[in-house]
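Q: Hi! First time doing this. I have a protein sequence and I read that you can turn it into a structure. Is that right? Here it is:
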Amino acid sequence: MRHLRDQKTTTSIALLITSDTRTLDEDETGQAAIELLESEGHKIICRDIMPNDPQKITHWLMESIEGKARVIITSGGTGIGKVDVTVDSATRLFDKEITGFGEHFRRLSYDEVGIPGLISRAAAGVSGKKLIFCLPGSKEAVKMALTEIILPGLGHMLWELDRR
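A: Yes, that's right. Below is the predicted 3D structure, encoded as structure tokens:
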């Protein structure tokens, strides 16, 4: 039985890829995300790529939170290495964390890749009226997060965010 609040919606999205090696031209992960999002009718209003620099990432996120996109997606920087700073930058800006997102993502990742899936720090949260999702840099991980969690639940999440 479908939940009464399950609904299809389209929205505007800002996409950030954090990488010290990729350029926009060779960014297969970002391109895969755009293709999936646009195939569902969503509009990418901003797409950027930047190095793993916490100040630059935080600045980009703050501009996106103030901007027109309702949903902000980052890819990269969710691991446990020294250069993995995206999640740390984003979670400082969350008003509320959506803990179930990371938990479910890691469960799905474990089913796909085993133990390495458990060390992902993929996260989601709310800042103001914006949803923020921090995804790994792997193209397959981004596709899984979008198809299994974000796209099926986006209408309900935005509905919840907008209600009084």
